[in-house]
């Protein structure tokens, strides 16, 4: 069996560990051969491949990014579509695709599988927003980076008696904000799942300041204050026509300053959260998912992806994976909110 691996959507620490896990298990145990598609679905559509032998994955589990490159290319556009992609796979002698990506990549994979292509999936997202898997690799690394950044913001905030606003990733869900905010002892955590008034934010900030603390407010990029209809977007649309988020922290800072009189500064962590080496937890999770993905190719489990349930790696159908976002449940928010202010 000759398998083409692709990484698609935003990159994420741990992608290389998945690739290594799949190639090691596949070549050593399952008798498989591998190639890499360059830049996600773009490589599939254009037939642009790289060799992927055991020697190519040596030592890459600890490397950030993806050695294959990634993109947000839609495989149904341009020279894409199931028939032409199948012709390309036949020409290149590729029997099956292993798609590593988020809900968009897996939605595309599902449509192609429904049209007869042989594809298995590995879920990826720093946002941790896929309901079918308990955790996605990259999330732990992003939380670690965000927490470290907030620890730093707190010392400079303390020195100047300022309110510090830290903006983290999280398009639809607030998992990174919730975990890093709790870890760093934030005085307010603002997430997409919970519309919150500026008066409430100001109250939390003022209460922390009254106790002599420099307030720390953590905000997920997809947060919408209750006076707004949509998340803040000022950077146009992405390749799939969706608003690019980012910048809400800078918007909130002057409002907090106006309402409280406390000097306020905002920092947007942005892509720093997705760069650099994965944590040990993410390397292990990603390696296990890659190994399991090689196994499910062997079982011809087309239209399925590997996932983490508790401590086990399981197999779930794409439709289950795509059905629902894993939002922060009310009780997890309430638990964190007890410590606000
Ligand atoms: N329903 C769909 N049908 C076909 N193609 C899709 C669909 N949804 C998304 N795609 C394509 O897949 C690409 C990857 O999706 P997306 O950009 O959402 O990344 P992702 O895999 O979800 O990762 P991330 O976590 O970074 O969002 C999109 O840019 C788009 O071209
Ligand atoms: O890397 P890009 O294309 O700017 O995308 C950023 C988006 O990707 C993610 O990191 C993962 O979906 C989101 O948190 C963020 O909104
Ligand atoms: Mg997506």
TrEMBL record:
Native source organism of the sequence: Herbiconiux ginsengi
PANTHER family named in the record: ATP-DEPENDENT 6-PHOSPHOFRUCTOKINASE 3, PHOSPHOFRUCTOKINASE
Assembly and interaction partners: Homodimer or homotetramer.
Cellular component terms (Gene Ontology): 6-phosphofructokinase complex
Domain of life: Bacteria
Site (Important for substrate specificity): 104
Name of this protein: ATP-dependent 6-phosphofructokinase
Ligand binding (substrate): 125-127, 162, 169-171, 221, 265, 271-274
InterPro entries: ATP_PFK, ATP_PFK_prok-type, Phosphofructokinase_CS, Phosphofructokinase_dom, Phosphofructokinase_III, PKF_sf
Reaction(s) catalysed (UniProt annotation): beta-D-fructose 6-phosphate + ATP = beta-D-fructose 1,6-bisphosphate + ADP + H(+)
Gene3D superfamilies cross-referenced by the UniProt entry: 3.40.50.450, Phosphofructokinase domain
Function of the molecule: Catalyzes the phosphorylation of D-fructose 6-phosphate to fructose 1,6-bisphosphate by ATP, the first committing step of glycolysis.
């Amino acid at each position: 069996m000759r398998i083409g691996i692709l990484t698609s959507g935003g990159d994420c620490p741990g992608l290389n560990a998945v690739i290594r896990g799949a190639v090691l298990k596949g070549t050593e145990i399952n008798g498989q051969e591998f190639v890499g598609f360059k830049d996600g679905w773009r490589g599939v559509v254009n037939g642009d491949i790289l060799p992927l032998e055991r020697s190519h994955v040596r030592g890459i589990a600890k490397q950030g990014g993806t050695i294959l490159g990634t993109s947000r290319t839609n495989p149904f556009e341009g020279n894409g579509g199931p028939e032409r992609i199948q012709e390309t796979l036949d020409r290149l002698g590729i029997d099956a695709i292993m798609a590593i990506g988020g809900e968009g990549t897996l939605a595309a994979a599902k449509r192609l599988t429904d049209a007869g292509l042989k594809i298995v999936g590995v879920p990826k997202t720093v946002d941790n927003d896929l309901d079918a898997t308990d955790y996605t690799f990259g999330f732990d690394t992003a939380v670690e980076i965000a927490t470290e950044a907030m620890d730093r913001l707190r010392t400079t905030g303390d020195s100047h008696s300022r309110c510090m606003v830290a903006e983290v990733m999280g398009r639809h869900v607030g998992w990174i904000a919730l975990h890093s905010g709790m870890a760093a002892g934030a005085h307010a955590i603002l997430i997409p799942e919970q519309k919150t008034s500026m008066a409430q934010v100001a109250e939390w900030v003022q209460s922390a300041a009254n106790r002599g603390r420099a307030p720390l407010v953590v905000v997920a990029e997809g947060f919408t204050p209750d006076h707004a209809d949509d998340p803040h977007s000022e950077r146009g649309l992405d390749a799939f026509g969706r608003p690019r988020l980012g910048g809400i922290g800078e918007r909130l800072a002057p409002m907090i300053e106006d309402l409280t009189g406390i000097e306020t500064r905002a920092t947007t962590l942005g892509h720093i959260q997705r760069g650099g080496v994965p944590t040990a937890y993410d390397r292990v999770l990603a390696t296990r998912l890659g190994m399991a993905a090689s196994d499910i190719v062997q079982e011809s489990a087309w239209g399925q992806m590997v996932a983490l349930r508790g401590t086990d790696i399981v197999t779930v159908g794409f439709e289950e994976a795509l059905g629902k976002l894993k939002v922060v449940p009310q009780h997890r928010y309430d638990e964190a909110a007890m410590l606000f202010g």
